[in-house]
Design goal:
By secondary structure, the chain is mainly beta. It is built from five helices and 40 strands. A ten-stranded parallel beta sheet has the order 1-2-5-8-12-16-20-24-28-32. Strands 4-7-11-15-19-23-27-31-35 form a nine-stranded parallel beta sheet. A seven-stranded parallel beta sheet has the order 13-17-21-25-29-33-36, with no helix packed on it. The radius of gyration is 24 Å and the shape is globular. The termini are far apart.
Length: 445
């Protein structure tokens, strides 16, 4: 019998326990007045909910796998009104580096930080082999006006999911005005008006996947106004809009050659010495595909044309469309007098993801909103699934591209028209269905 009792208590010890919900309100109307005190009292699995207010403090997760969030992380007014301000006394938020994805920071304005690394958010540098920074999830935050005396004005060493944040007006004396050495999935963020004294005005040394971000008006003194040193051979830079960034070398991107670059809009960037849009100091040089690049570049499916942004002057980089374009201000769909050439001209092998389900929509859009629910809609006769070369007709050149990948497995293959990760007879049949068909998209170009 005693063995059964021991076994029962051992079983209890491994069953998951529901965490506490802990409340914070600077007015004293909750359990704690400070976020730091609430974290100190918390345990793994707890959720800390913070009421609006300006909290003059620095916080540290200290390795605890907890959720720290505002009352409504998806409400911009709540995020703007729930402020953590370090008053230039260190990083605003600090992680130990051992946290996992279930650890979440969400729904704050994070400002007033100053540190050698990660003025706004510092992911830590644990000593365990293979671990560099926290794997915590960082989402729905605004990270403005932080600084670093070294690298990572906004964020540094954060290797988990970083999504739906606004990282703006941060500075770094050396590298990564916005983000530095963040090596996980960086998705759906706005990275703008950041500055660095040497390299990577927007992002520097981020070796994971950079997808669906708008990266604009960042600057650096030397290399890579938008993105610098994405040197990981398995790195992915896809469906980003990179606009108006500046540097001496590589106004848009610099030294990103080893990464796969596709479905991006890279226009309006400037370099005072060389490479307005792209620059690489050494091999391998960047080889983008299915991207809209000002000035043009070699590579499969690339185009050189005005992307027809909704209103670049106000930071609206949705694509104009006669069939419908998402209006974030009005939270509705609007129709334009023009249609962007970037609609339905992305890699035919890429999934269209959450794009509006329309019979005319056969390919992913190029740019930050491609594959998302805010992707602009496709007018009739504007797209051809099998036009692999993006020259407006399906012919022998498209067949030749498909043949190069024949029976080769892998995602995002150019000729994988049914997107099942292998180029085979089913894909050839789809190409033949479009044989010698043309699109009106390129009329007049």
């Amino acid at each position: 019998m005693k063995y059964l009792i021991v076994a029962f208590f051992c079983l209890l010890s491994v069953l998951p326990c529901e965490g506490r919900t802990i409340t914070v309100d600077i007015t004293g109307a909750a359990e704690f007045r400070s976020i730091r005190a609430a974290i100190s009292d918390s345990n793994d699995g707890d959720v800390i909910i913070v009421a609006p207010g300006r909290y003059y403090e620095k916080i540290s997760f200290a390795g605890k796998n907890i959720v720290v969030r505002s009352t409504d992380p998806e409400d911009p007014a709540i995020v703007a009104g729930t402020v953590i301000d370090a008053n230039s006394l260190g990083p605003v938020v600090k992680f130990a580096g051992t946290e996992v994805a279930e650890c979440v920071l969400s729904g704050f304005t994070i400002t007033g930080g100053n540190a050698a690394r990660g003025g706004g958010i510092y992911g830590g540098e644990p000593s365990q082999p293979g671990k560099i920074g926290t794997r915590a999830t960082i989402e729905h935050n605004v990270v403005p006006l932080n600084s670093s005396t070294g690298s990572g004005g906004g964020l540094a060493n954060c290797d988990g999911l970083i999504q739906h944040n606004i990282v703006t007006q941060n500075t770094a004396a050396n590298a990564g005005g916005g983000l530095w050495h963040c090596d996980g999935l960086i998705r759906g963020n706005t990275v703008s008006y950041n500055w660095s004294g040497h390299q990577g005005g927007g992002l520097c040394g981020c070796f994971g996947t950079i997808r669906n971000n708008v990266i604009f008006f960042n600057s650096t003194v030397d290399w890579g106004g938008g993105i610098n040193k994405s040197l990981e051979p398995n790195g992915v830079i896809e469906n980003n809009t990179i606009y108006g960034n500046s540097a001496r070398f590589g106004g848009g991107l610099c030294d990103c050659g080893p990464s796969t670059i596709s479905n991006c809009i890279v226009v309006g960037n400037s370099a005072s010495v060389a490479g307005n849009q792209f620059y690489d100091f050494s091999d391998p040089h960047a080889s983008p595909s299915y991207s809209c690049i000002e000035g043009g570049t070699q590579g499969t499916g690339n185009i050189d044309a005005d992307p027809c942004f909704a209103d670049a002057g106000t930071g609206d980089y949705h694509l104009q469309s006669r069939a419908g374009r998402w209006d974030g201000g009005g939270k509705s769909w609007a129709c334009d007098g023009n249609t962007s050439i970037c609609i339905d001209t992305g890699n035919p092998g890429s999934s269209v993801g959450d794009e509006p389900n329309d019979g005319n929509n056969v390919r992913i859009n190029i740019g930050a909103y491609g594959g998302s629910a805010e992707a602009s809609m496709t007018p009739v006769n504007q797209a051809l699934l099998a036009d692999l070369t993006n020259d407006g007709i399906v012919d022998g050149r498209d067949f030749a591209l498909q043949a190069k990948d024949w029976l080769i497995s892998g995602s995002n293959k150019f000729g994988d028209l049914n997107r099942n990760s292998i180029v085979d007879m089913a894909d050839l049949t789809l190409l033949l269905d479009d044989w010698l068909r043309t699109t009106s998209r390129y009329a007049g170009l």
